[in-house]
């Protein structure tokens, strides 16, 4: 087995394994990942529970040193880790290396946060009494991650969990075990006491569910699809666990008549199709006002059709393959549904290239209305639809008419409308003249409505989830 579980400081083999397939070149099996059983998860949780008390007492310097080591090694090895990432997930090599570097930067940021943990001392309303408000670790946290950011998402959950003094059990995505294992291997050499970090590979429905249901887990942070997230929230309620969910998006990008056309096309090309559209923040609904609509669709179509699709590891490739056969099938079926519902589909063909991979051309669906399924449901592929709007007011109403609320963008040269949009877009993140995807790591990440649930991730706001607030009163 190439990707084995790390439990209580030991690498453990399982009898069953699951192949890690390169979506750019299907015969290329990168490695085999453990297919764990619930008993493995029980031991990982027990290991985290045993190690949690000492780690909660670790000094800021000890925590800093561990996180700084991990961040430094990831940054030093970003080219190699990025290559592994692109090979197993299918995003282009520059995107893969960029994501690996991001993971390193996240650990560096939270290394610094170890030294910046503060509390409040207040005067009591009672004479002579002192009040201290401090943050304490939650305890054992279960982390469940998706395949589309196989190193950055584990990093932005593990780093704050450790920085704020928690013990961790990670259940990474089945499709991308390589990056998770590489990260675990670095963590195992970081000086972190044994058992504080544990990783268990396997199926979401078995070991993932077991982690969520486990009575000895105090909190669960999940990123993935809406149905899984809803089920996890319900399960956590039963055992009164703290829970944080980051789920899907159907992110609008409004393009107004006064937009800089080249900038708008570049932002939508990036937002819709980069990383093969497999980003929860992808620009999937392009809402365009009448005066610029036809010019915008023509220019975006030309730019989209110029994208070089192919093997993620080859130089010059701008869009890699879809992650697997199931996701490819889902993308193609949404294009059929969109056409059946009256949309005009441009591109989106299944591509046969020199290597056998899950390739498709990027697709734009024009002449759509917001009640069509292509505009209500997340596709999670290189597919964007275009909606016409009479004016800014209608564009804003269309943008907000969604069950999701992760990221919303606007392209305009009007400061007045940009300001109004920032204040009134129903989304956790708003972008002006920028793609809906692409965020910083030192500020909060998350959405509203069906996209997110619970406290925000990333930046110093991560403390909300990974700590419990304690209020202490003293009469000296
Ligand atoms: P998924 O929900 O199928 O799986 C996510 C993780 O949950 C995997 O590790 C999986 O094994 C696990 N899982 C599945 N069933 C489980 C269960 N019953 N109990 C516990 N764990 C379980 O999602 P996916 O297909 O891996 O990822 C794609 C989805 O992730 C998309 O919908 C995308 O929008 C979303 N996503 C959201 C964000 C965000 O921050 N909002 C970021 C990236 C991806």
UniProtKB/TrEMBL annotation:
Gene3D superfamilies: Aldehyde Dehydrogenase, Chain A, domain 1, Aldehyde Dehydrogenase, Chain A, domain 2. CDD domains: ALDH_KGSADH-YcbD (cd07097). Coiled coil: none annotated. Residues 17-471 form the Aldehyde dehydrogenase domain. The active site is at 246. InterPro entries: Ald_DH/histidinol_DH, Ald_DH_C, Ald_DH_CS_CYS, Ald_DH_CS_GLU, Ald_DH_N, Aldehyde_DH_dom. Keywords: Oxidoreductase. It comes from the Bacteria. Belongs to the aldehyde dehydrogenase family. This is Aldehyde dehydrogenase family protein. It comes from Pseudophaeobacter arcticus. The lineage of its organism: Bacteria, Pseudomonadati, Pseudomonadota, Alphaproteobacteria, Rhodobacterales.
